[in-house]
Here is the input.
Amino acid sequence: MAKMLTGRAVQALRPKTERYEVMDHGPGFVRGLGVRVSPDSGKVFVLIKRLQKGGNPVRLTLGDYPALSLTAARTVAIEWSGLIARGIDPREERKRIEEERKLIEVRRQANSFAAVAERFFASHRFKAQRCGHVVVRIVRKELLPTLGPRSITEIASSDIKEIIRRTVNRGKLRYAHSVLDCATAVFNYAVDDEEIIDTNPCKIKREKVIGPKQIRQHVLDDVALRVLWQACEKLGYPYGSFYRLVLLTGVRRDEAARATWRELDLDGKLWRIPAERFKSNAEHIVPLSDDAVAVLRAVPRFTSDYVFVGRVGAVNSFPKAKARLEREMLAILREANPAAELESFVVHDLRRTCRTRLSALKVQDHVAEMVIGHGKKGLARVYNQHRFIDEMREALDRWALSLRAIVNPPSTDNVVALRPTA
Here is the structure.
């Protein structure tokens, strides 16, 4: 019995001046399998078979050694011999499988989370979102690094939970809710618009993964308002002016950040926020107090139409600006009391402070609600089309006058000395 051809024997084969072949032999051999050794192309496994009964033998290339081992070559040779016995040319079958594999890969890439997200960003569904730029930023920063190359059909609820848990572990609970909301929006698009998947993997019990959303109730007191106003002076343009305008008008952060000069009529003291930038998808008119106009007139004008210009487009470095603002505020507090501490706040608290102070100034609730853009509800939204511009102007003028008295007290040597020590 001939000695079995082994992997070591194949490795030991050396090229000669002429090409030669060594056929598989010994126990476990595959009939027709051989190793072709050439001076120029090295070692190649071949299968010598008749593709048709009575036809001439054909050498079918299985693959190069050592990329294809002897054991693997025998497996392929057995598979191909079976195809030939069924009248199938294994070369055509290999080509078909390769084309199918490429097609699957193309489809997988087309349905990757990154590709679906980009199509979502270009869709009419997305363009209807007021804060679309925030969604894009969160998706690209928090979701694409992990989910981007993966097919959206392969992503499970466990993958979403893992991303959310990482965000929670960073101590960003409210932000984790936003990340989940953005992921939900992309998958809803995949379910409803493209029908790639049947169910949204983001349908998880967020209270168990993140915890319930904490309702913020923080309102800045007089001392905090004075210190914030002074800190804005040190911050300067653009963020110092930005924070002051939010406080004076009660508008949302992104409504102020993306304000354009074409929306403003400083002579008429009006700010018209267009429907596409406003939460309720309707134009919002903000009467500007003299103090708000003064803030805007002090803003430098650039070639950009944005009022508050950042490095690229409108301002968007809110975490850094907020951290700097709080540092300036704490420094001012500690000039009067070295042990003083600053109660942390978010930009939205300025809007809540404005709304709360309007009530304290005896502004009617429906007017105060319209000032901050909550608008009319129920049938009044349909039938009562009065804009209450005069009433809102009076309310904001009252608030500006009150704020002016708070930040510029008539006789106080140290405006931060009123803060009680811990």
